[in-house]
Design brief:
Helices cover about 40% and strands about 15% of the residues. The chain is α+β, with helices and mostly antiparallel strands and about 350 residues long. The longest helix is centred in the C-terminal third of the chain and has 22 residues.
Length: about 350
């Protein structure tokens, strides 16, 4: 397999293995009369994604109801775990342990297949600032940037500890992207790019499994979150309770520039809508989580939509996320109770 084909196969971050999509057992997100119609609409739209869908959404200011569909069920995070990595890095910036303009070496043996660094900076001697690494990690889901920052954060355990310090349970970070890809594909030792290339040569059909569910992966508790846990973490970040005012502005600004997943949370929004978000894609999973700013100063909505165990086309999963997000947007703009 060529390097180009390998890069395209793993670009979104993580991929998965053949399986059969499980039927969606949609349950009402809440039981209140105020959200009954929205609950039914979300359950109906979720069926278009195949598999299992999880939703958590509420106003950032805490007014009004929480919208939850399978909100306490664990879903593979895929690249949405990079929000937590960014949070831990910015905590270190706030403590003076790192600086945004601090240069960090990017060794060749840490190159992980993804769109920007590993694909274009192919010669030794790469160094990037913390700020640029954050930008690449969150806007283009660059795996190499993620792994360099995960190491600078103190490793996955330190990232999880930061999440716990925010009072958030139900989310865990266990591996960097190189480890996850190596485990997922059964790749051997050595730099992950070469290991994946060798695995692909040994099994030419390996990368064909990139967008289908796999029971072993889908049921692995590692690197998972509940939609509600992600919503709680995002609430802490976007409300300025997790980080300093400066770091809060940095992470929101970067997430507003996200270049991936245009067909997900943003996909059905009115023109000009502002969405700060982070996507994730792996096998039967397609995710998006972030914040939607309502027009006319009407407030902000935290939202996390997760899809797992789906064999439906990725476009169908993305469309379901977009339609659910638009329904939530319209509900909080026009129908939600003020308190």
């Amino acid at each position: 397999m060529s390097n180009q084909k390998l890069r395209l196969a793993v670009m979104p971050l993580l991929l998965a293995v053949t399986g059969v999509a499980q039927p969606l057992l949609a349950q009402p997100a809440t039981q209140s009369a105020a959200t009954a119609s929205l609950d039914q609409q979300i359950a109906r739209l979720a069926q278009g994604a195949g598999g299992t869908v999880g939703v958590a959404a509420w106003r950032l200011d805490g007014k009004g109801p929480r919208i939850l569909l399978n909100g306490g069920e664990a879903f593979p995070m895929a690249s949405t775990f990079k929000v937590a990595v960014a949070g831990r890095i910015l905590e270190r910036v706030d403590k003076g342990e790192l600086k945004l303009n601090q240069m960090i070496d990017v060794p060749m043996d840490m190159m992980s297949p993804s769109e920007v660094i590993a694909d274009r900076l192919i010669h030794p001697g790469v160094s990037l600032s913390v700020y640029n690494l954050l930008e690449l990690m969150l806007t283009q889901s660059d795996n190499t940037a993620t792994d360099v920052l995960t190491k600078a954060a103190g490793g996955p355990a330190a990232v999880t500890a930061w999440v716990r310090a925010q009072g958030v349970t139900g989310q865990r970070i266990d591996r960097d992207t190189a480890e996850l890809l190596r485990d997922f594909y059964g790749a051997g030792p050595g730099p992950v790019a070469q290991a994946l290339e060798a695995a692909a040569k040994a099994d030419p059909k390996l990368m064909d499994r990139s967008s289908l569910p796999d029971a072993k992966f889908d049921n692995d508790p590692r690197d998972t979150t509940t939609p509600e846990a992600m919503g709680n973490l995002l609430t802490r970040i976007f409300s300025g309770k997790a980080l300093s005012a400066g770091s809060t502005k940095v992470i929101i600004g970067i997430m507003e520039r996200c270049r991936t997943g245009a067909g997900r949370l943003s996909g059905a929004m009115p023109p000009g809508s502002k969405v700060a978000h982070k996507t994730g894609t792996i096998g039967g999973t397609v995710n998006d989580a972030g914040m939607i700013t309502l027009p006319g100063g009407a407030g902000e909505i935290v939202i996390a939509v997760y899809v797992k165990k789906s064999a439906a086309p990725v476009a169908d999963r993305e469309r379901a996320i977009a339609e659910i997000a638009r329904s939530v947007h319209d509900y909080f703009l026009f129908s939600a109770p003020a308190k």
